[in-house]
Amino acid sequence: MPKTTQGPIFKEEFARSKQNNVMLSRVAGSLYWMSRYLERAENVARLLDVNLQLLLDFGELDDQSLKEHWGPILQAIGDEELFFQLYETADSESVTDFITFCPTNPNSLVCCLSNARENARQVRDQISGEMWTVLNDAYHFINNNDIRKVWDGDVGAFYDQIKQFSHLFQGITVSTFARNEGFEFIQFGKYMERADKTSRLLDVKYHILLPKVTDVGGAVDAAQWQAVLRSTSALEGYRRFYVADILAWKVAEFLIFQESFPRSIYFCVDQLRQFVQLISEDRAGESQSAGVRKFGKFASSLKFLTTDDVFKQGLHQFVTEVQEQLAEVASYMFETYMYSPPVDMVAEIRFHQQQEQQQQSLSECMGVVN
After folding, report:
1. 209 and 336: one domain?
2. pLDDT digit string (tens) for 274-300?
3. 3-state secondary structure labels for all residues of 203-266
4. Does residue 274 sit in the same domain as residue 298?
5. Contact, 134 vs 168, CB < 8 A?
6. Cα 99 to Cα 108: distance, rounded to the nearest angstrom
7. Contact yes or no for 112/165 (Cβ under 8 A)
8. Residue 209 has what DSSP assignment?
9. Which of 147, 177, 207 finishes a domain?
10. Do 72 and 92 reside in the same domain of the chain?
11. Average pLDDT, stretch 197-226?
């Protein structure tokens, strides 16, 4: 090959390969967060809708009772401190506005749907047109509403529509998205968010939500545990397994260990284990890396635990361990496959130009010697 063309061709191929590597990581990250934000929006919408309906069963409540009701919900989504920086009292309207429309709350529905759409926009060429349409419709739906329209209209129908967008998106994704690495990142994001929210709900109810120990086993306790089941779409599934009353240990057993229920901790963690392994195998056979092995051991350990083991250890301690493992594997996957450090193309090309010049000088010297 003539020396006059070798340099430019090399630079072009090098730049293209660098851009492709960065794009792969960015695509993986966008698909992951697109899926996770939409799943979060569905979970938050259901949690808020269920607790608004639960208040109707309790009748008129004073300010302190409302604070005791909404405080744990804010803790479940991790935004209690931010809420009281923006609002004076935790009542139904203020909490609804904060969780649904507050632009400074990163977990509000308007932020979740906006972030899901923005991540989808960045990978329009990777997802189907139907997937984009659903996210775009969800984005415009919530941005065309406000707290007054919701309260003056059908509150339940509003949050049902948010959930419907998520269900429609998941169905379309399964039907139109190729079973490739991108699909694996979408599913990984979905199950990561589900596992996190189920564990947080269990922890909040068991340690915070019940105001008095004397209420354990009473009507209020049963109504609140039923709300936890409804918040995870688990009430009907629970009834099929346990026909008797709703009891704390049975709810915990169902939401932690039920292998066939798609929102139980066990089911979500097992799905995460499979997708972590698939993604690692897709990337240069890294299935035996330390991060993958550690999470695999944790997922396998759940098979041998019982509800008695969990309560002996302490439900809070168990849930804390689950959340730590989830956070650790999420961080590992992000740093390994989704993080793209900025590339200084000028410096990289300059370095390779120097390498080419040295190689050319060496070749010329060898030619003189020969």
Report:
1. yes
2. 999 999 886 654 445 788 888 999 999
3. HHHHHHHCCCHHHCCCHHHHHHHHHHHHHCCCHHHHHHHCCCCCCHHHHHHHHHHCCCCCCCHH
4. yes
5. yes
6. 5
7. no
8. I
9. 177
10. yes
11. 69
Do 288 and 202 lie in one domain? The reply is yes
Are 140 and 188 members of one domain? no
C-beta of residue 339 within 8 angstroms of C-beta of residue 25: yes
Residue type, position 60, single letter: E
Q: Does residue 113 sit in the same domain as residue 162?
A: yes
User: For residue 149, with 0-12 CB atoms within 10 Å meaning exposed, 13-18 middle and 19 or more buried, which class applies?
Assistant: exposed
Average pLDDT over residues 97-124: 96
Residue 102 CA to residue 111 CA, distance in Å, equals 8
Identify whether 38 is part of a domain.
yes
Say whether both 275 and 312 belong to one domain: yes
Model confidence at 57, pLDDT cuts 50, 70, 90, reads: low
With 0-12 / 13-18 / 19 or more C-beta atoms within 10 angstroms meaning exposed / middle / buried, residue 98 is buried
Number of domains in the chain: 2
Name the phi and psi angles at 101, rounded to 5.
-120, -5
d(CA 179, CA 214): 52
Q: Which residue has the higher pLDDT, 369 or 255?
A: 255
* One domain for residues 198 and 331: yes
For residues 175 and 191, give the distance between their C-alpha atoms in angstroms, rounded to a whole number. 18
Q: What is the pLDDT of residues 9-28, one digit of tens each?
A: 444 443 444 444 444 888 99
The residue segments making up the domain with residue 224 are 180-352
State how far the Cα of 164 lies from the Cα of 38, in Å rounded to an integer: 11
Kindly tell me if the per-residue pLDDT of 43 is higher than 50: yes
Tell me how far apart the terminal alpha carbons of the chain are, to the nearest angstrom: 20
**Which pTM was predicted?**
0.82
